[in-house]
Amino acid sequence: MSETPRIAVLSRFPGLYSTQRLLQVVDAAGMEAVLLAPEQCLLTVNGVHADLYVQGEKFPYCAAIIPRIGGPITALGARLLRYFAGAGTFCLNSAEALQLARDKFASLQALAAAGIAVPQTVYFTESRQKELALQMLGTPLVHKILQGSQGVGVSLAETPVAARGMLDTFLSLQHEAMVQRFLPGRQDVRVIVLFGEVVAAMRRESAAEDFRSNLHCGGRASAFPALPESWAEIARKAAVALGLDFAGVDLMADADQNALVLEVNPVPSLEGIEKSTGVDVAGRVITALQLRLASA
Q1: pLDDT digits (tens, 9 = 90+) for 37-75
Q2: Judging by beta carbons within 10 Å of its beta carbon (0-12, 13-18, 19+), is residue 256 exposed, middle or buried?
Q3: Can you give the chain as a three-state secondary structure string?
Q4: Can you give the residue ranges of the ATP-grasp domain (predicted)?
Q5: Distance between CA atoms of residues 110 and 96, nearest Å
Q6: If one looks up domain 121-181 in CATH, what number appears?
Q7: CATH 3.30.1490.20 domain residues, the chain
């Protein structure tokens, strides 16, 4: 009799909805669910061998790993995923895809190169470039830190004076700036893509006092069953362009009602999408993993 497959969820926060749902579904599917805390991991290489230790013990083989890695520890998460890939573990999103998607400007470059429309965006590192950036974008404009998520590090400047002050601040603190043309409207759409298939979509609307539609910033979510096929196709292509097996693709209409990809999240939250749509996204993820493991 073959051993029960071990599926690990890589997460710093065991109490989060997404982490709990994935562990519950793995267990319900008759597999061994393992919670792996990244900060408890010790990686080694010696000659041609690589190993992983957790709390002093060599970590046993896992059939698959699901990364639930936040932005601040993307580099650690990527190193762990590289280890697991080398050990023959199936990784739901590779280290390379995770790092590309987490770099907001690099991911926009990859999307544009794949023929996927994105908002006009400017990246620069010296203060003397800010006037050209303002000339290109005008105001209002949005500044985003390159590694932010959940709406953190996203700022709106409504006038040239405010924009100059904001850019000076970020350039002095981070030595780089990424600014984007502001898209009016309080709604965007989050599309969940799993192995090239759209499994759910929700509309997000910002709170009255905030321009950001992220649910962590007080935005509201509702099911969006009437997702246009053209938007679904863009979401699928965006996930493929970044090499992501599992992704949350955020889209918004421009002035001509054409879809633009705002960004692609390689670790999309399950709570908002499951509660607003009723779709068992965690179940879809685990079923898809089972099929891939069975065919390996």
Answers
A1: 999 999 999 999 999 999 999 999 999 999 999 988 999
A2: exposed
A3: CCCCCEEEEEECCCCCHHHHHHHHHHHHCCCEEEEECHHHEEEEEECCEEEEEECCEECCCCCEEEEECCHHHHHHHHHHHHHHHHCCCEECCCHHHHHHHHCHHHHHHHHHHCCCCCCCEEEECCHHHHHHHHHHHCCCEEEECCCCCCCCCEEEECCHHHHHHHHHHHHHHHCCEEEEECCCCCEEEEEEEECCEEEEEEEEECCCCCCCCCHHHCCEEEECCCCCHHHHHHHHHHHHHCCCCEEEEEEEECCCCCEEEEEEECCCCCHHHHHHHCCCHHHHHHHHHHHHHHHC
A4: 108-290
A5: 13
A6: 3.30.1490.20
A7: 121-181
- The owner of tokens 């830190």 is 145
In percent, how much of the chain has pLDDT > 90? 81
Tokens 């390379």, residue located: 96
Q: How far apart are CA 184 and CA 119, in angstroms?
A: 12
The burial class, CB within 10 Å (0-12 / 13-18 / 19+), for 257 is: exposed
Residue 211 has pLDDT above 70, yes or no: no
Q: What is the pLDDT of residue 217?
A: 46
pLDDT category of residue 1 using cuts at 50, 70 and 90: very low
